[in-house]
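Hey everyone, long-time lurker, first post.

I ran two proteins through the pipeline my lab uses and got sequence/structure pairs for each. Pasting them in order. The first:
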Amino acid sequence: MRLGVLGPAQGDLPALARGAQHLLDEGHAERVIYVAEDDALDRVVVGWAQRLVGADPTEGALFDRAARCTAATPDQIDAFVASERARLRLRVLMSLPSGRRTIEILDGRVALFVFDKAALDEEDIVAASLLVFGKSPEPLIKKVGSRTFFSPGPIGSDGGAALLDDGQGGVRIEVMNASGAVTAREIVGPSAAGPRLRVQGGSHG
């Protein structure tokens, strides 16, 4: 799986949108998680969906949108289908749920995603091998015993976005800045026996 991570937008929705677009188009992320407490990514997704299908992009309005095709040309119908498929693709972009945490399995490891790692209790930490959090002034990859703590950093920092790829015999973490350049890279797992790799000023704890 290629899982994208976005740090807090700090009010910069255009930069957040660019980060999400890069993770989808260049990083080929299968899903993207926004590790923040605000609704910035939801607002970005709604804006994209409205540009694709109109003012009401909800699933409940799909029938009304489809009804416009009753007298449409084949090209117009093709355009309608393409726009609806693009809207459905936006489902891969998700914010933390109302409980403010979510769990993924990467390379057989439990990865816990949360905004503030201080909210984690001992039971949470014991269960997870990879703890991904959003509240950090800069990107951070820190190994503590058998666990790795990771933050992409906020949007606009030397990071802000990251890809977690579990197809490398471990979980490869790549941190990217606003221009899409990789600023830090590390592999968590069996392939991480060598030294950490730092590029372009990536920040490690």
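...and the second, right after it:
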Amino acid sequence: MGRAQERTRHQIMTAFLDLLEQKYYDMISVSQISEESFVTRSTFYRYFKDKTALLMTVIEDTVEKTVPDQPLLTQYVTYVEQYWPLLRHLSPSRQSRADLHDILNQILWEMIERRVQGSSTVEDPVIDMIRQAKHRNIMISAVEGIMMGILERYVSEGAENINATELEETVQELVAKFSK
């Protein structure tokens, strides 16, 4: 991808993040994203299949840039703490909760699977456990379910802010269980 294309892609992603700080995900349209990023709708669709693909790209991109080279659950805690103002707007205001749940599950599942398939030098008991599991896909789903459950708890409570200490302590307990 050339520099101009990368700049346009970044404009679209930044505009989406700006909108997500102000509005719920299901209240943001491709037209609004295009207008905010100063591109046409057809340009938006050259870079992203749809709004869901954009969401997945933004989360994956921000995870990698925000908290690289850390064990999975540590990376997850850091990301949730830093991006909670945006993540809480993923809660649907009118959209089916199942739709959003499916999107986030897919993002988490793919993120975990890439780590399991990769060859990271980061010591990570969760990823090591999955790699050693007889049924990797089921184990990935179990870990993804834990991560999703944490997010859903905060979303269902309508939390303006997350309790960072509670989240960190809970994840430390989980990591200790995986390390046994």
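Reply from user beta_strand_b:
Welcome! Quick read of the second one: DSSP finds nine helices and no strands in the chain. The chain has a mean pLDDT of 84.
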